[in-house]
Amino acid sequence: MNIALIAHDKKKDDMIRFTTAYQSILKEHTLYATGTTGQKIMDATGLSVHRFQSGPFGGDQEIGALIANNKMDMVFFFRDPLTAQPHEPDVTALIRLCDVYAVPLATNMGTGEVLVRGLEREDLSWRNIVRGQAPVSESV
Ligand SMILES: O=C(CO)COP(=O)(O)O
After folding, report:
1. pLDDT tens track of the chain, all 140 residues?
2. How far is it, in rounded angstroms, from Cα 23 to Cα 46?
3. ipTM, 2 decimals?
4. Which end of the chain is more exposed for a tag (fewer CB within 10 A), N or C?
């Protein structure tokens, strides 16, 4: 599975704890991240992560592009709901695309725990069928 890992600054410690705890599950998958999050994960865990730009410099949009091509299977995006982000439109767009493509999304560690267990149990095997497909347009 292709997995995206993203954390706002005040949630990066959560992301490090999370990826450390579930390293054995995550290492079986292809990992992508925004720039700073990815570097911190690699430094802390040794996991191999494909890094995009930092979030405020377009990283969220790069990950959004993979979602829009139905190539991303799960997103862990630990958001900071208490701090205004200069790139809030990018954050909103990424979350919206997860809904457009029915991509499982965890915006906090609590949901992350559930999703990563689903990943371990191969609950996402349906993604192997839809990955890369165009979305079904809704008739108007
Ligand atoms: O801002 C982010 C997500 O919106 C995260 O970006 P970084 O991982 O580069 O800090």
Report:
1. 999 999 999 999 999 999 999 999 999 999 999 999 999 999 999 999 999 999 999 999 999 999 999 999 999 999 999 999 999 999 999 999 999 999 999 999 999 999 999 999 999 889 888 888 877 665 45
2. 9
3. 0.98
4. C
Is the pTM here over 0.90, yes or no?
Answer: yes
Question: 34: Cβ below 6 Å to ligand 1?
Answer: yes
Helices (H), the chain: 12-21, 23-26, 35-45, 59-68, 88-100, 109-120, 127-130
Looking at domain 13-76+88-130, its CATH superfamily turns out to be Methylglyoxal synthase-like domain (3.40.50.1380)
Hey, whose CA ends up nearest to atom 3 of ligand 1? 55
Residue 60 falls in the annotated catalytic set: yes
- Does residue 35 contact residue 52 with C-beta atoms inside 8 Å? yes
Domain boundaries, the chain: 13-76+88-130
